[in-house]
Design brief:
It is a single chain. The protein is built from 13 helices and 6 strands. The N and C termini lie far apart (48 Å). It is α+β, with helices and mostly antiparallel strands. Strands 2-1-6-5-4-3 form a 6-stranded mixed sheet.
Length: 342
């Protein structure tokens, strides 16, 4: 094992030397293992898959241009995270995006601060893009499990934090970098990093649901069965059956639309109103996954074909489905491993 590790280090050192002399192939081989985890990192900070893809490209371009100045004081991975994090902070500073209040569905009750409807730029992250990220285990200082730290509620909660707080929390509590490493990445003092982290933790915990509800206690088989029955009820246009599978406090939201409905009664009214607008169009569902959660790509009739039209990302608890978040857009749907037509 030690011999294998030494050989990998030597290979990386040789590739680095060649890349610093201008070998583009060596640079590509050197950085390719980090692409997916860096894209997920950008996604957590900015909340948008499309923006994360763009920021990954910016990070790679900046790394290529600055590689000759990399002296190896930190690991290559930490150096790439430094570039990616600062690119994200620049993008947030330029965009100045802030969560916006939404109109609450009639009878929905109090509007919780963690509602994803307040984040119009929020997009789901297809699980097919997470497949090789699991190899990058967080450091021992991480506070959040990998599955918990990619969930929609977590990512949307991050969007309410100030950009610097957001970056510090992800680097420290999700990735497990030490405070001195984060301070160097951000060009800040350790004291300021620790202060930002404490404020970020307090603000995020106020927005997240109780920890017992963040990760489903149902096994994969039970989750799949529940979501399958949910899809079958939708395909039958049986709103009563759909509502019966929801938790009492279930939430429906549809970013970027300012729609937010909570509770079985409010959700039932909303679904019946939407049903009247959609019929006689029918729909079908294909199971998939996003943000570590069960998801359903839905297809609507178009002549003799079924054409994909959107995706539901579901939150599942032991007592039923507690959230349905609908997303649309063909550019987004193309990232899911499902056919364009059925």
């Amino acid at each position: 094992m030690h011999e294998l590790s030494w050989q990998r280090e030597r290979l990386e050192h040789n590739r680095l030397a060649r890349a610093q002399r201008g070998d583009e192939d060596a640079f590509a081989q050197l950085t390719a293992p980090y692409h997916r985890e860096l894209q997920v990192h950008c996604y957590r900070i900015v909340g948008s898959l499309q923006d994360a893809e763009d920021l990954l490209q910016e990070t790679m371009l900046a790394a290529w241009r600055g590689l000759e100045h990399f002296e190896g004081r930190s690991s290559l991975r930490a150096w790439l995270y430094t570039i990616a994090t600062n690119r994200c902070l620049n993008a947030l500073r330029d965009g100045a995006r802030r969560p916006q209040p939404v109109v609450i569905g009639a009878g929905a009750g109090p509007h919780p601060p963690e509602s994803v409807a307040e984040i119009p730029w929020l997009q789901p992250y297809p699980d097919v893009l997470l497949e090789r990220v699991a190899d990058a285990a967080p450091g021992p200082a991480a506070r959040y499990e990998a599955k918990e730290a990619i969930a929609l509620a977590f990512v949307s909660g991050l969007q309410h934090l100030a950009p610097r707080q957001r970056a510090v929390l992800v680097l420290r509590d999700v990735l497990g970098f030490h405070a001195d490493e984060v301070a160097e990445m951000l060009g800040a003092s350790e004291a300021s990093v620790n202060s930002a982290l404490q404020r970020a933790r307090a603000a995020l915990e106020r927005r997240l649901p109780p920890r017992r509800e963040r990760v489903s206690v149902l096994g994969p088989g039970a989750q799949a069965d529940l979501v399958s029955r949910f899809a079958e009820a939708f395909e039958r246009d049986d709103v009563d059956a759909v509502v019966a599978l929801l938790t009492q406090d279930a939430v429906v939201s549809m970013p970027p639309e300012p729609e937010w409905h909570q509770g079985r009664e409010a959700v039932g009214r909303f679904l019946r109103a939407r049903q009247l607008r959609r019929l006689p169009q029918r729909w079908r569902f294909v199971p998939t996954a996003a943000n570590g959660q069960p998801a359903l790509v839905y297809y609507l009739t178009d002549g003799d074909a079924w054409v994909r039209a959107g995706v539901f990302v579901t939150g599942v608890r032991a007592d039923g489905i507690d959230s349905i978040t609908r997303f649309g857009g063909e550019d987004l749907l193309a990232r899911f491993d499902v056919p364009e037509r059925l």
